[in-house]
Amino acid sequence: VTILTSVIDVLMFNWQEQIFMVVLKSFMQGALLLLLFSFNLRLATHKSPLNRMVTANLAAWSLVGASLLITEMNRPEFSPYPDYSAALLPPSFFFAPSLTAEQFLQESEYVFDIPQ
Fold it and tell me: Distance between alpha carbon 68 and the CA centroid of its chain, in Å?
């Protein structure tokens, strides 16, 4: 679990979008639910493996979809307390190369130019 949490922190450090986290959490919950349903069906019923996987997939992903739908229906358009990742990591964790302060100032110089 610690490795998975670290990977999620690095991904959120690079993509500061809440929807990515919602999708990732929903996928992990669905996969865990699918695994538990398939084990339960294996122990509780005498279904064929294909029938068991279809039933487990249908049950798990419909529960995840319903929970996502209910969550999104009750989400307000504006939140005074937005959710965001506050993970602080060193620049070596960036996927894209970062700019130095001098490079940034040179590239953003045109913003402060006054047109004549």
Answer: 13
